[in-house]
Structures are given as structure tokens and as C-alpha cells.
Write a structure and sequence with these properties.
Blueprint lengths: L1 E7 L4 E8 L2 E5 L6 H9 L3 E7 L10 H8 L2 E5 L8 E3 L4 E4 L2 E7 L8 E7 L8 E5 L2 E2 L2 E2 L9 H16 L7 E4 L17 E2 H7 L7 H9 L8 H11 L12 E2 L1 H9 L3 E4 L3 H6 L6 E2 L5 H8 L6 E4 L6 H10 L5 E5 L2 H7 L8 E3 L9 E4 L3 H7 L6 E2 L18 E4 L4 H12 L5 E4 L2 H7 L16
Parallel strand pairs: 3-4, 4-5, 5-6, 10-13, 15-19, 16-17, 16-18, 18-19, 20-24, 21-22, 21-23, 23-24
Antiparallel strand pairs: 1-2, 2-3, 7-8, 8-9, 9-10, 11-12, 13-14
Helix pairs in contact: 3-5
């Protein structure tokens, strides 16, 4: 038996290839499908089945293009009217060589969510592992808030899916979830590549609750919903365009960058906070390279081209991959030579202030842009306001224009993003607090644990 977990690290997304004999199945493929073709080729396997555990919200699936390349059958839950593939229902079973992949309908995260149970018929009829999609993670369970008018219903469905379908499979059954630590599809996913049902029953706090308490927990959770989720849901219901059709990334001169920006292109600076503060292309958005998967979808639309700006162009290929995985194909290119080339061109620079945590003055307006859950758990600077970094544009009226504004996050990266948004809206008196709340706490500075009314938390 071959089991390979393919991790899309920036998205914290797990997909899988499993096979035996001469056949293989892929579960929840990402959009750039070459990794599955290469993996199957190395093991001499033909991909015959593609399972989608649900209509994913946070990335584009690659099922259609993978099926076109391999002739594999696409299978997904029957409780949604997809425009492609074959609907499957509870009890359906598919042979992949000597392996059997059986379907459990496990709604809660979404209505059409399924889990896929793997059995090796050469060894036993007992389940060996289960691909749980977004129902059960290591240390967490899936979010249930995608239907705001059905919060209690969906939480109850997830509880029943877990207790009646997944947990009874047996303590020794391996759990292969669709996401790992850092995913927006859970609130506290543990940093473990695999887990078992028995381990989760003993250690996962959500699985120690009765049904009513579980529902209350899920209904009371707060998760963010980036605007791009709606596009991913639409794409993945109809099938996204093939990534192979996207134009190649190309280098652009500073003049070409400036001209594209004047016509509406979004300039995305993928350097760190200190570099951005010291000098950046005016109007550019500051999203550090490894944060693109998390934050590009808050501020980039699908109608205007994107241009990446780096220091020495070393991160632009990775930036392109991240953008395309969440459906951004209108990418004009990158500023060739990065900010050094921009500087040599004589083009204007934008700047903003930086400071250490020791330089945050008591009478200044402090804007905390961390996740609200993190703020509640770790405490905050006394008197600070809160707006999540992904929601700045919707709360501009809460940020004063006539005062110095100190922006702080966990370590400085989300603060730089927030500052860049405020700069784009005409704010000038802005300072990024380098080191963020990590430095604040390590320095032993005053911390307020009590949760005051917070702005921008909805």
C-alpha cells in the first residue's frame, strides 16, 4: 500500500494519494496537480478515482484537470448539485486495486461533506484509516458557521457525524484530515501530521462534550470569512478553470509597473515589515511572502491584475503559486530587480514609521490587528482598539486621522499589512510596532487580560 500526504504549507492543506496494485486514488487535490501525476508515476500507479470530501472554501480544487489528464472518476457528496463528477452516498464503495474506499456522509462543516474509509481487503475487513475532510482534525473539529441562519443545525449535524459515523470506526483507525495547524477551517488544529480516533477521543476537548454543550461551543465560536471564500465556493461547485491555461509570470520594468498601477493593478509587496516601512512603491499592499495565502483574499479582487514586488525577486515564484491556488490568474508579473530596481529608476518612495515596544507612548492611539481569539487568550495593551487585519477597510471610521496611530499584531507582519491599507486610504501618521505583542509580553510591559468591548470584532 502507498499512502502519501501532500501538504500545501501556506494553506495548511492536506491532500492524499493512496494506492495498491496498479491503481491509486487522490483525495482533495489542489489546483497544481503535477505533484499527483509525479507521485503516481514514481510508484507505477494509474489514478482511477478522485474524491472531494466537500466543496472547499479556502482553495481551488484540481479535480477537473487531474481527471482530464488521467481519466479518473470524480466523486463527491450527493447533497450538493455539482456541475461535474458523480454524486456518492452513504455506503457506496469503490475498489482501488485491492483497497476498498467506502463513503460515510458526514455533514456539519457543509451539507455535502463526506468521509472516506479505507480498508485493505488483503489484510482485514476492518477499517484502516479514514479521510475526514473538514469534519475531524488533529486536536479540533471543523467550523460550522458557513450557514449563519443554521448555526445550531449544522453544529448538531457535525456532532452526529462525529459520534455516529467517525468515532465508531475504532480507536486504532488512523485519521487523515484535510487541514493541519494554521488553517482557517478550524480554530485550534494541532501541529500533528496524523492522528487516530482513539487519540482524539482522549485528547480532543470538543470530543469530550455532550451534544448540547458541543452545539453551544460551535455556535459561540468566532471565525473570519475572507471575501475570496465566496469565489472558491462558486469555482469548486462548477469546477475552476485549469491552472495550465494561466499565462506565465513575466518581469516588468519599473515604468511598466507604474503604468499598470495607474490603470488599476494591485501592487503586492511580499517583503517584511522593516523593509516595507523603509521604502515601498506608493500604494502597494504589504503582505509578507508566507502570508499571501491567508491575506491576499481579503484585499485582492479577481478583476484587476496583480504585480508582485520583492527585494531580489527570490520569492515571486512562490507568491504566484500561492495566488493561483486561491484562484488568482490575472497576474501581470513582478517588478524585475525588486525594490533596488525601483530605487535606481528614480521613482517616488512611500515610507512609514517603525518603533520598538518600548517607544509606544501612553497617550497614543494603539490599534491591535490580531485575531480576536488570540487577543482574548493572551491579553492586550491597556486602552488599545481592535480591528482584525483582514477587516481594516470596513472599519476605517474607527481609526483617527488626526492622531499618531501605533499598529501592533503578533510580531509585526499583520501590522505592516494594516498600515499599508491605511496608507492607501490617505492616513499618514502611522507607526508599525516591530516585534508586536510577542515583544510586548517578553518585555514585561503592562497587559490587560480582561476583555473590554472591542471594535471590528464582527
Amino acid at each position: 500500500m502507498i499512502i502519501e500526504r501532500i501538504v500545501s504549507e501556506r494553506l495548511a492543506h492536506n491532500s492524499y494519494l493512496v494506492g495498491a496494485g496498479k491503481e491509486a486514488a487522490v483525495i482533495d487535490p489542489r489546483r497544481d496537480i503535477g505533484v499527483y501525476l509525479d507521485c503516481a508515476g514514481r510508484h507505477g500507479l494509474a489514478i482511477t478515482h478522485i474524491f472531494e470530501t466537500h466543496r472547499n472554501e479556502d482553495y481551488c480544487v484540481g479535480s477537473l484537470e487531474l481527471a482530464e489528464k488521467t481519466g479518473a472518476q470524480i466523486l463527491h457528496g450527493a447533497q450538493m448539485d455539482f456541475t461535474y463528477g458523480v454524486p456518492v452516498r452513504e455506503g457506496d464503495e469503490f475498489a482501488v486495486g485491492p483497497l476498498r474506499l467506502g463513503v460515510l456522509e458526514t455533514p456539519g462543516h457543509t451539507d455535502e461533506s463526506i468521509s472516506v474509509v479505507l480498508t485493505d481487503m488483503r489484510v482485514s475487513r476492518d477499517p484502516f484509516l479514514v479521510f475526514t475532510g473538514d469534519a475531524l482534525f488533529a486536536g479540533d473539529v471543523g467550523r460550522t458557521d458557513f450557514f449563519p441562519d443554521r448555526l445550531g443545525e449544522m453544529a448538531g449535524k457535525l456532532h452526529d457525524s462525529l459520534w455516529k459515523k467517525i468515532l465508531p470506526l475504532g480507536d486504532g483507525v488512523i485519521v487523515c484530515p484535510a487541514h493541519g495547524a494554521g488553517s482557517v477551517c478550524g480554530g485550534g488544529i494541532a501541529d500533528r501530521p496524523l492522528t487516530t480516533i482513539g487519540y482524539e477521543k482522549r485528547t480532543n476537548s470538543a470530543l469530550r462534550l455532550g451534544r448540547d454543550a458541543f452545539i453551544r461551543l460551535k455556535v459561540g465560536e468566532h471565525h473570519y470569512y475572507p471575501p475570496y471564500f465566496a469565489v472558491m465556493e462558486r469555482y469548486n461547485r462548477a469546477g475552476p478553470p485549469p491552472i495550465g491555461a494561466a499565462p506565465a509570470l513575466r518581469p516588468l520594468s519599473p515604468d511598466e509597473v507604474a503604468d499598470a498601477a495607474s490603470k488599476g493593478a494591485l501592487l503586492v509587496d511580499i517583503r517584511g515589515p522593516s523593509a516595507f516601512a523603509a521604502g515601498h512603491v506608493p500604494g502597494s499592499l504589504s503582505i509578507w511572502q508566507t502570508g499571501l495565502s491567508s491575506f491576499l483574499g481579503y484585499y485582492a479582487d479577481y478583476m484587476h491584475p496583480i504585480i508582485f514586488i520583492d527585494e531580489f525577486d527570490v520569492g515571486v515564484v512562490d507568491a504566484e503559486v500561492q495566488a493561483r491556488r486561491i484562484g488568482y490568474d490575472l497576474i501581470s508579473g513582478y517588478c524585475a530587480g525588486g525594490m533596488a530596481a525601483w530605487a535606481r529608476s528614480g521613482m517616488p518612495f512611500g515610507r512609514c514609521g517603525t518603533c520598538t515596544v518600548h517607544e509606544v507612548e501612553a497617550d497614543r492611539f494603539v490599534l491591535d490587528v490580531r485575531d480576536i481569539g488570540v487577543r482574548k487568550r493572551t491579553g492586550h495593551i491597556p486602552g488599545s482598539a481592535h480591528i482584525y487585519a483582514g477587516q481594516i477597510e470596513g472599519h476605517l471610521d474607527e481609526v483617527p486621522r488626526d492622531r499618531d496611530v501605533y499598529v501592533i499584531c503578533d510580531s509585526g507582519f499583520k501590522a505592516s499589512l494594516a498600515v499599508s491599507i491605511l496608507l492607501r486610504h490617505g492616513y499618514t501618521r502611522l507607526t508599525t510596532v516591530l516585534g508586536g505583542m510577542t515583544a510586548w509580553i517578553n518585555a514585561g510591559l503592562p497587559l490587560e487580560k480582561e476583555v473590554a468591548p472591542l471594535m471590528g470584532a464582527a
